[in-house]
């Protein structure tokens, strides 16, 4: 039978404990399907558009006003 030493002689376990604690604090949904911070920063801002059928077909597209 192998006896265990009083002090483990391996990598620093405090670092592993910190990682485990951080994972425990994270919501489960975030662990399963994370949203990368870079995607959240690049998410486009929606632009206001006219209602369907309100297009003015007699004006060229570059001159058409989208807000009245």
Molecular structure report:
The protein is mainly α. 35% of the residues lie in helices and 0% in strands. The chain has helices spanning 13-25, 28-32, 37-42. The radius of gyration is 29 Å and the shape is rod-shaped. The chain starts with 12 loop residues before the first helix and ends in a 26-residue tail after the last helix. The model has no long low-confidence stretch (mean pLDDT 77).
SSE order and pairing:
Elements (H helix, E strand, L loop, with lengths): L12 H13 L2 H5 L4 H6 L26
Unreliable segments of 5+ consecutive residues:
none
Structural class: mainly alpha
Assembly status: single chain
Q: Write down how many β-strands occur, each being a DSSP E stretch of 2 or more residues.
A: 0
N- to C-terminal distance: 85 Å
Individual helix count: 3
Region (Disordered): 1-68
Biased composition (Basic and acidic residues): 14-27, 40-59
Short description:
The chain has 68 residues and is mostly helical. The chain is 35% helix and 0% strand.
List keywords for this structure.
68 residues, 3 helices, 35% helix, mainly alpha, rod-shaped
